[in-house]
Amino acid sequence: MSDSNTLDDQAIVDYLRAQPDFFRRHPMLLSELNLPHDSGRAVSLIERQVAVLRERNMTMRRRMNEMLQTARDNDTLFSKTRSLTLAMLDVSSWHELNEVLATNMLVDFEADFVCCHVTGRTVALDHIVSHRDMLPSDAFLNSSSPACLTLRGDEMKKLFPIQEHEELGSVVLIPLRMKQPGGCLAVGSRDPRRYSPEMDTLFVSYIGDVLARIIERL
């Protein structure tokens, strides 16, 4: 042991000699060690096999870390979705729904903008706007499934009228499947890359279904 509290080569050698079964107890370390042998400039089959195993081991670890991170992200997203759902179930007025959307979407989900567009109702609030016929989202949706888009400032203005939009932004549009005239929940970001077409829309679809039932009840 040196003064810097790090093991020197001799200390490691002494330890391994005292622990002859060390690598039997830690076999995974063998795939990470660099153990070349004298074969000239040629690469032996054993070296090649070890290199392949080491690369596979690193790939598996990377994939495992990615899976764990995805699981953590989904768990966090589920928790936020659950809180929003429970809050929406408790509302009894348009004003309460307006506050729930603002609190949960802008705070918990860290969105920059949120606006629910509906037809066949008379309501004009910060985050809930009614329209006679066409919804501003109709120009961007070609199906009943959620869509993630990058939009210009003037297009963002149509979806989020109470804010100013001068540059590109991104948005997720969630159609509301209702028996009566329809609606759409728009959630936006100033970051044009935040809501990309590759984003999983499972949770936002669920939010849209719950919101549609709440609006029908109101």
Radius of gyration over alpha carbons?
A: 28 Å
Output the helix-strand order: HHHHEEEHEEH
CATH architecture of the largest domain, by name, is 2-Layer Sandwich
State the low-pLDDT regions, or none: none
Give an overview in words.
With 218 residues, the chain is an alpha+beta fold. It has two domains: 9-61, no CATH class; 91-217, Beta-Lactamase (2-Layer Sandwich). The protein contains six helices and five strands, in the order ααααβββαββα. It has helices spanning 9-18, 22-25, 45-89, 94-108, 153-159, 202-217, and strands at residues 113-119, 128-131, 147-151, 169-176, 183-189. It has a five-stranded mixed β-sheet with strand order 2-1-5-4-3. Helix 3 packs antiparallel against helix 4 (94-108) and helix 3 (45-89) packs parallel to helix 6. It is elongated and about 85 Å long. The termini are far apart.
Secondary structure blueprint with pairings:
Layout: H1 9-18, H2 22-25, H3 45-89, H4 94-108, E1 113-119, E2 128-131, E3 147-151, H5 153-159, E4 169-176, E5 183-189, H6 202-217
Parallel strand pairs: 1-2
Antiparallel strand pairs: 1-5, 3-4, 4-5
Helix pairs in contact: 3-4, 3-6
List keywords for this structure.
five-stranded mixed beta sheet; elongated; Beta-Lactamase; alpha+beta; single chain; 44% helix; 218 residues
